[in-house]
């Protein structure tokens, strides 16, 4: 683990390119995204980007990895150990972080739809899926051990919550974004209360 | 309502073109779909298709409408009035009908990702969404009136089930299709049992 208080110049560069990619993706969408447009957001030449990433797809696969890292950092940074509160926090982050960013959710849906034809995207989406499901499963298992949750199948419960999250994100790209996500947050809550905390 | 026992030659043509579109979408995916490839599946010239549909997008918007019609026909054709069984039937159809068609789910995800940039697709996906949500809401309301379901917000419960369906379809295009869909069918069942039938 690198010490985040001593950020190297190298990781500053990566962070800046990733932030430029996020802005360009929101502005142009996946289909019209070019390294040139990302370079414009970054404020440097395309060569400065290609020095770090050979192709646009390399850069976008790294961007998916960056999104996972950011998500993990946000969640790990919170000192909450109560399983119930921790699961709430995870679901808040997964469902409500992009409530005002329909453009971002549209771009992510486009990248997901590309994944079956793009090995790099496919592998990175699967890595993100597995790690987030692992986080959900761990907090559910811990809750079962501590008597906060019923004795459910933690792996299935984690998949159920991921299904609600993925459904909400797909729908939020097409329908009213804020309403869809807050409504799905309620659905996730109902699932947790009625299934995970049944008879608690 | 047209009498389905007296199918006109015109609707036979439409049906054949729609079936050819389905096969071509499964084989080539959305990105590589052309009117020429649909015509090959149809066994006629591209002119024979263009006689009915001006553009590929007109044809694909009609195809989305055809999918809704087929779904509605399947469900309306079943004489089940018990709210519980009818909701089960709807969820079986929505989640398990494409369990062996990952290629089709991939093509649908690609079309969905296009919708924010394509007015025809957007309008038709929204029409399908509204009608299927209406069917779910109606059966849930009926169940509440008849005491089979708890006094929940039927509109929200319908959205919750749609969120699970859309999540399952998005995930099934990327992960193990059969496992994802049968797992989500269980999630939908848990939601119905724990939330809709709580304290029944």
Strand-helix topology:
2 copies of one chain form a homodimer.
Chain A: H1 9-28, H2 35-42, H3 46-50, H4 56-76, H5 83-96, H6 102-114, H7 119-145, H8 154-172, H9 177-196
Helix pairs in contact in A: 1-2, 1-6, 4-7, 5-7, 5-9, 7-8, 8-9
Give structural notes.
The structure is a homodimer of 200-residue chains. Chain A is mainly alpha-helical and 200 residues long. Chain A is 74% helix and 0% strand. Chain A is built from nine helices and no strands. Chain A is elongated, with a radius of gyration of 18 Å. Mean pLDDT of chain A is 92; it is low at 1-6. The A-B interface holds A 29, 31, 106, 109-110, 112-113, 115-117, 122, 125-126, 129, 156, 159-160, 162-171, 173-175, 180, 183-184, 186-187, 190-191, 194-195, 198 and B 29, 31, 106, 109-110, 112-113, 115-117, 122, 125-126, 129, 156, 159-160, 162-171, 173-175, 180, 183-184, 186-187, 190-191, 194-195, 198.
């Amino acid at each position: 683990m690198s010490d985040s208080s001593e950020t190297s110049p190298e990781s500053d560069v990566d962070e800046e390119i990733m932030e430029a990619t996020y802005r360009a993706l929101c502005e142009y969408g996946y289909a019209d995204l070019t390294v040139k447009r990302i370079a414009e957001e970054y404020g440097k030449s395309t060569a400065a980007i290609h020095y770090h990433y050979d192709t646009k797809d390399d850069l976008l696969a790294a961007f998916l990895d960056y999104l996972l890292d950011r998500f993990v950092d946000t969640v790990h940074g919170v000192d909450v150990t109560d399983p119930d509160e921790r699961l709430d926090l995870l679901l808040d982050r997964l469902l409500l972080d992009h409530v005002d960013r329909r453009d971002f959710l549209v771009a992510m849906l486009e990248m997901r739809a590309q994944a079956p034809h793009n090995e790099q995207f496919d592998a990175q989406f699967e890595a993100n899926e597995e790690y987030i499901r692992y986080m959900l499963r761990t907090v559910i298992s811990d809750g079962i051990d501590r008597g906060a949750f019923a004795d459910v199948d933690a792996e299935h419960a984690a998949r159920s919550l991921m299904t609600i999250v993925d459904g909400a994100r797909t729908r939020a790209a097409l329908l009213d974004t804020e309403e869809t996500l807050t409504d799905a947050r309620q659905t996730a809550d109902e699932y947790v209360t009625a299934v995970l905390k049944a008879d608690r």
